[in-house]
Amino acid sequence: MPNQKTPRQTSDAVELVNRLAGNSPEMADLIAQESANLDIARKIHELRTRAKLSQAELARKVGTTQSVISRLEDADYEGHSLAMLRRIAAVLERRVEIRFPLARKLQRA
Known about the structure:
- The chain is mainly α.
- It has one domain (13-91): Orthogonal Bundle (434 Repressor (Amino-terminal Domain)).
- It has helices at 13-21, 25-50, 55-62, 66-72, 82-91.
- The model has no long low-confidence stretch (mean pLDDT 85).
């Protein structure tokens, strides 16, 4: 019987995600996309609550509905528009910054 090491147990989310991605560039890309969605949702929620606004109040100031704000604060939502993010930023006295960091190249088979 070969001497195989079993991976040690961990609850570290970053380590678990890295294990999940393994050496797959496609999985790493998917994880990066989901992380970006989570970051946007988390930031909108954080700024709104820091401004002591409910979703309905922010929606009214932005000119949309509470359900739109709720969707934008959902980490699974993928329909962010730059125009809507700018409107929210303006109401919260912020600006939107976009970065294009170097990405891994996907390997083609």
